Inverse folding.
């Protein structure tokens, strides 16, 4: 029986000054400074079933072309199969995307692969364990203030054989938009802050990865947002789908999607709360030197709308970036299911609503999976993939899906596609 081995690595992916910061469409200039460096962090796990690499990048999104290049570079340097490489983004809106290669002195994919190579070279016998934490009070549903958030934090703890922490893999649903369009400094936003705090708490040499859950309709609930919610103002949700504390035609209303004025202090506040809860929950996890615990499978779901499914195509605002879709009738969405002991990770290549993540977790647990999580912003970027019932309500996120020709039925297709795999490994 082959023992479990693990290793962590990191690489600096901070772009050059002047680069375009993405996630908002109304910035007057490119980046004017670096507030905190952007990193690619990697975890490599290996047992008798093979080796897998998990990557988290402090970047808004990566195209499938970059993901393919990362996988090719990783395979060339380490031998890890491309289908065993999970590439996720923290989705910071104070960072770039990958479409401008001049932002880096080397190809971005090669720099990201550096982190994986470092993790591979650091492989050592390891113990793993997974668990959950809960963080309430720091996130809010930005479409309907009275609809669900997902407060769950999913954690994979990795120790050496003596029980000393090597690092963590974490997952939580909260948009990386504490900093708004008026910020022109490069930053990992609150997840970047949080990972550094966790690494400081775990000790020198540790590395912590962050991934997003169902955060497509979830924004940070910061002190600035709280002031608006108690400021005798009419509050309108992003996309203008709902209104609270006043009439929809109030000319002085504040939209919860307006992230102008967000501060680094607020990012630090949210990061501290996340690090506190994650460190506590991780400290309660018991790790074991298990073997034969790794598996993964991929399925592909066509995200394209049926002919005639959308009568008209709106032109959404706020974001100027669009994915490059080659065939309007075939928009492949790669879904990866990765088992790591009691932990089950299921990916989607877009922004996904909290309801989807909660439904996945509920169903997976009913099948016997102890610690399931949805990992979004992975393996390309199709902007938004809402649930069918969200489309009649309209708004920013469904309008983006319609404008790109994505189907209202993607999430049911997703569930149908992964069900045989879930049943097989349950």
């Amino acid at each position: 029986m082959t023992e479990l081995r693990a290793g962590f690595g990191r690489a600096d992916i901070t772009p050059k000054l002047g680069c375009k910061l993405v996630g908002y469409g109304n910035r007057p200039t490119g980046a004017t400074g670096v507030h905190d460096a952007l990193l690619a962090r990697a975890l490599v796990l290996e047992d008798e079933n093979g080796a897998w690499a998990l990557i988290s990048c402090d970047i808004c999104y990566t195209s499938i072309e970059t993901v393919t290049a990362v996988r090719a570079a990783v395979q060339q340097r380490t031998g890890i199969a491309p289908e065993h490489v999970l590439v996720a983004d923290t989705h910071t809106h104070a960072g770039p995307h990958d479409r401008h290669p001049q932002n880096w002195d080397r190809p971005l994919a090669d720099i990201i692969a550096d982190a994986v190579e470092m993790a591979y070279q650091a492989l050592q016998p390891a113990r793993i364990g997974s668990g959950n934490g809960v963080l309430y009070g720091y996130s809010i549903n930005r479409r309907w203030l009275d609809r669900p958030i997902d407060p769950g934090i999913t954690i994979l703890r990795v120790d050496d054989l003596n029980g000393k922490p090597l690092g963590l893999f974490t997952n939580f649903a909260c948009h990386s938009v504490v900093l708004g369009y008026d910020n022109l400094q490069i930053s990992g936003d609150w997840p970047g802050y949080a990972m550094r705090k966790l690494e400081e708490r775990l000790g020198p040499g540790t590395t912590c990865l962050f991934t997003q859950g169902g955060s497509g309709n979830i924004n940070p609930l910061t002190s600035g947002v709280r002031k608006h919610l108690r400021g005798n103002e009419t509050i309108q949700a992003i996309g203008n789908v709902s209104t609270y504390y006043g009439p929809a035609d109030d000319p002085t209303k504040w939209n919860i999607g307006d992230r102008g004025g967000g501060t680094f202090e607020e990012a630090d506040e949210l990061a501290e709360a996340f690090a506190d809860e994650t460190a506590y929950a991780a400290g309660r996890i018991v790790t074991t030197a298990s073997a034969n615990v790794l598996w993964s499978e991929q399925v592909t779901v066509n995200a394209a709308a049926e002919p005639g499914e959308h009568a008209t195509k709106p032109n959404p605002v706020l974001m100027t970036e669009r994915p490059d879709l080659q065939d309007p009738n075939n928009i492949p969405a790669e879904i990866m299911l990765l088992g790591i002991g009691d932990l089950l990770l299921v990916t989607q290549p877009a922004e996904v609503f909290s309801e989807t993540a909660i439904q996945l977790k509920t169903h997976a647990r009913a099948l016997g999976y102890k610690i399931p999580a949805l990992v979004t912003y992975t393996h390309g970027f199709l902007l938004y993939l809402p649930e069918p019932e969200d489309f009649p309500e309209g708004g920013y996120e469904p309008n983006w899906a319609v404008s790109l020709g994505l189907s209202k039925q993607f999430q049911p297709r997703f569930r149908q596609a992964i069900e045989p795999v879930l049943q097989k490994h349950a």
Summary: Residues 129 and 285 are 6 Å apart (CA to CA). The two ends are 22 Å apart (CA to CA). The first helix runs from residue 64 to 78. The chain is about 25% helix and 25% strand.
